[in-house]
């Protein structure tokens, strides 16, 4: 085992000095949606009332990375201090994310379009809610159909309760985009632990937080230094995929 680790570290250091240039594909994204895509109306809310959709993630380890919704219309151009809010709740309606976005970064004179906001990558385990609080600044699209998904509700921000719904004849046009959660040792987040990750670890080998080569992601055991113990953990995961 010791000989294998020495060889592994040697190759890692070698590739850190002579970087590989083969490009690796990014992890595939999955878009979750329950609406038909045919906008029928716009719905807004103010104060503590919001528009929520309950999502079921795909099987496996996935993280929420983006939220997408359809802007049906807006109430003119906002002032510089106009904001809207998005919250993500777990299946028990406990807060996972509480985010505020500047209106002017996403909205302009053009309406009837999809808006995509990036959120901090959040591992998801089980059903989760995405709730948008437009604060009367814009309308989120809704899609009517004879039998909806039953996943759209009007929700209260104050106590995370369902104010109205689930609606059985329409869906809010709110969607989520998810990516596979990379393994901790997948340093370049391409979905597989391989020589490219060993290259990054080799570049940071021996570094601590005061070193310019410090890479906190490569400190797998969180002991403040990138050393042989981190190499062992990467060796254990070598060849694994997300």
Question: What report would you give on this structure?
Answer:
The chain has 242 residues and is an alpha+beta fold. The chain folds into two domains: 2-26 and 183-237, Type 1 dockerin domain (Orthogonal Bundle); 30-180, Jelly Rolls (Sandwich), CATH 2.60.120. Helices cover 15% and strands 35% of the residues. It has three helices and 13 strands. It has helices at residues 2-17, 195-204, 228-237; strands at 30-32, 41-43, 49-55, 62-74, 83-90, 95-102, 113-124, 128-133, 138-144, 152-156, 162-164, 170-172, 174-180. Strands 1, 2, 4, 7, 9, 12 and 13 form a seven-stranded antiparallel beta sheet that branches. The radius of gyration is 23 Å and the shape is elongated. The two termini are 25 Å apart.
Amino- and carboxy-terminal Cα gap: 25 Å
- Our count of helices gives 3
Q: What is the CATH domain class of the largest domain? A: Mainly Beta
How many domains? The number is 2
CATH fold call of the largest domain: Jelly Rolls
Question: Which stretches of 5+ consecutive residues score pLDDT under 50?
Answer: none
Give, in order, the helices and strands.
HEEEEEEEEEEEEEHH
What is the second-level CATH architecture of the largest domain? Sandwich
* β-strand amount: 35-45%
The biggest sheet amounts to:
7 strands, antiparallel
The coarse silhouette is: elongated
Q: Report the helical percentage.
A: 10-25%
The strand count comes to 13
Structural class estimated from helices and strands? alpha+beta
**Average pLDDT rating:** 86
What Rg do the Cα atoms give? 23 Å
């Amino acid at each position: 085992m010791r000989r294998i680790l020495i060889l592994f570290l040697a190759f890692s250091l070698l590739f850190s000095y002579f970087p590989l240039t083969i490009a690796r594909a990014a992890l595939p994204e999955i878009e979750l949606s329950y609406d038909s895509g045919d906008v029928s109306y716009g719905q807004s809310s103010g104060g503590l009332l919001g528009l929520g959709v309950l999502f079921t993630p795909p099987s496996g380890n996935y993280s929420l990375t983006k939220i997408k919704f359809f802007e049906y219309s807006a109430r003119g151009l906002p002032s510089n201090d106009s904001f809207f809010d998005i919250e993500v709740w777990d299946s028990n309606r406990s807060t996972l994310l509480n985010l505020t976005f500047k209106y002017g970064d996403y909205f302009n004179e053009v309406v009837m379009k999809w808006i995509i906001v990036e959120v901090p990558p959040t591992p998801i385990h089980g059903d989760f809610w995405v709730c948008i609080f437009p604060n009367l600044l814009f309308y989120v699209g809704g899609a009517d159909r004879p039998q909806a998904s039953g996943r759209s509700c009007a929700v209260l921000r104050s106590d995370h309760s369902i104010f109205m719904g689930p609606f059985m004849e329409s869906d809010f046009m709110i969607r989520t985009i998810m990516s596979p959660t990379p393994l901790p040792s997948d340093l370049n987040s391409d979905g597989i632990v391989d020589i490219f990750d060993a290259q990054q670890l080799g570049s940071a080998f021996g570094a601590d937080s005061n070193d310019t080569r410090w890479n906190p992601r490569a400190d797998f055991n969180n002991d403040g230094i990138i050393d042989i113990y981190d190499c062992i953990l990467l060796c254990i995961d070598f060849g694994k995929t997300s």
